[in-house]
Amino acid sequence: MKIAVVAANGRVAGKVITEAVNRGFEVTAFGRKENNTDAKDYVQKDLFDLTAEDLKGFDAVVDAFGVWTEDTLSQHSTSLAHLCDILSGTDTRLLIVGGAGSLYVNPEHTAQVSDGPDFPDAFKPLAAAMAKALTELRERKDVKWTYISPAGDFQADGERGGKYILGGEELTLNSKGESIISYADYAIAMIDEIEKGNHIQQRISVVRE
């Protein structure tokens, strides 16, 4: 399969690229900085400068965009809207590296992880910005998107265990009562979804088995 990874310089993106390359995917990475990934094909270009022509012909595009400072949080919405606009009406799938704060914690889907008393105040603006972007994404019926939320404890340096539980809109715990996954196992789930998943216009989530 032929995939593109956008905002490729980050650590989650790096794990996704490595997983895809190791499985024999044809990967093109797009990033603002010099290539620090395992992708042989690399285009140094800002996400906001990408055009429909740049992303033409790919089976899937992985959006690994992320910002954290208060003055840039709105870019979660604007970057996703830009990618949706240039993929609108095509068969190319758009898979988004999402957040856990917007996962629901009740069957009625009225309370989210970020609403909980133990959710750190420092992360609430980020969670709100990512939740807003997801809400806007749900309105896009012209794009074959899939939003993949990690577990609550998303570990950059966690081991690659190779097994995970696929969840949906609600926070899912493993048999130990944990909500945890490594970047490496998240990458496995992302590439599995590209390879054999069909959660079109859905949000799914993953947790370590």
UniProtKB/TrEMBL annotation:
<feature type="domain" description="NAD(P)-binding">
    <location>
        <begin position="8"/>
        <end position="192"/>
    </location>
</feature>
<dbReference type="InterPro" id="IPR036291">
    <property type="entry name" value="NAD(P)-bd_dom_sf"/>
</dbReference>
<dbReference type="InterPro" id="IPR016040">
    <property type="entry name" value="NAD(P)-bd_dom"/>
</dbReference>
<dbReference type="InterPro" id="IPR051606">
    <property type="entry name" value="Polyketide_Oxido-like"/>
</dbReference>
<protein>
    <recommendedName>
        <fullName>NAD(P)-binding domain-containing protein</fullName>
    </recommendedName>
</protein>
<dbReference type="GO" id="GO:0016646">
    <property type="term" value="F:oxidoreductase activity, acting on the CH-NH group of donors, NAD or NADP as acceptor"/>
</dbReference>
<dbReference type="Pfam" id="PF13460">
    <property type="entry name" value="NAD_binding_10"/>
</dbReference>
